[in-house]
User: Fold this.
Amino acid sequence: MSRIKAEYLWLDGVKPTSKLRSKTKILEGVVGRLEDIPVWGFDGSSTEQAAGHSSDCLLKPVHYVPDPIRGGEHIIIMCEVLSPEGIPHVSNTRARLRELTEKTLVQEPWFGIEQEYTMMQGGKPLGWPKDGYPRPQGDYYCGVGAEMVSGRALVEAHMEACLKAGLKFCGVNAEVMLGQWEFQIGPLPPLRAADELWIARWLMLRLGEDMGIEISLAPKPVMGDWNGTGGHTNFSTGAMRDPGGIAVIDAACRALGERHEKHIAVYGDGNEKRLTGKHETCSIREFRYGVSDRGASIRIPIFSAKNGCGYLEDRRPAANADPYQVCAIILETVCVGG
Ligand code: ADP
Ligand code: MN
Ligand code: MN
Ligand code: MN
Assistant:
């Protein structure tokens, strides 16, 4: 009988930004479908999800993939946190996205998320000199060469792991600041996009352990003339992707503008340090959308404008935003109507 190492992942209750936690359970037998994976529990008093006197929380498996690090039949499982009574815990932001995903199914929403992040070592971005700063930004973006990039070994290992796990991983690039990178997931239906992003984040953090590299999702890891770190969220519905969809994209942009503050509230803690109006961002106090405009809140990619259909890019979410909440509020605003 096979013994499967099952890594259970969940989001903790730390405020304002939940972090990933995980632990391993050995499963005896075969896992062929989600229902084969047992519900498990953990000590919620250690994750800011319960008080010490009544500390049990439940881990309900909701999506699993092959574990590319352990290989074999081992698996990684994204879980929802439930109270002992079996209802979603207050920290369980996936529950809301689950409801909205069901409610908006007929509109066929897809998300594609660009995850920027910064590799860190010794309190500094990877590759930065011990004292002072590297050359100003300008030639690091998509650069090649030892003086241009740092951390590519981890980028490659992560990409390989994501593909082995079967994630819909669609690309990587070196970013504007030295030590800063991006990967992209999607396009996928809402729950799937967010689950896959959380699993991809976990894989990045986990592989970073082996290389002594910390991963920061801070929206502005270095103050000054250095780019912040975003989580651009690309979105479309069936109607946006169909011929003439540009009118639907335009209407969605206007709806998004009506609820700017509500969106910003869930687009990541510390995002005000990043959305300054500089470094390819729009000020957090403004809302603008436009074709090809990387200084806008929402950008309509040039191909969508040219083809008359496609998708929009919400450039506001920060790297540390919770994709469950980001996708949920976009669905709420665009597909449900606020
Ligand atoms: P950028 O030019 O903004 O850097 P990227 O190539 O990094 O763009 O990322 C594009 C993102 O858009 C990817 O995450 C991809 O999955 C997503 N995407 C592509 N087509 C669609 C679509 N029709 N609906 C939603 N997202 C999409
Ligand atoms: Mn990108
Ligand atoms: Mn980018
Ligand atoms: Mn982008």
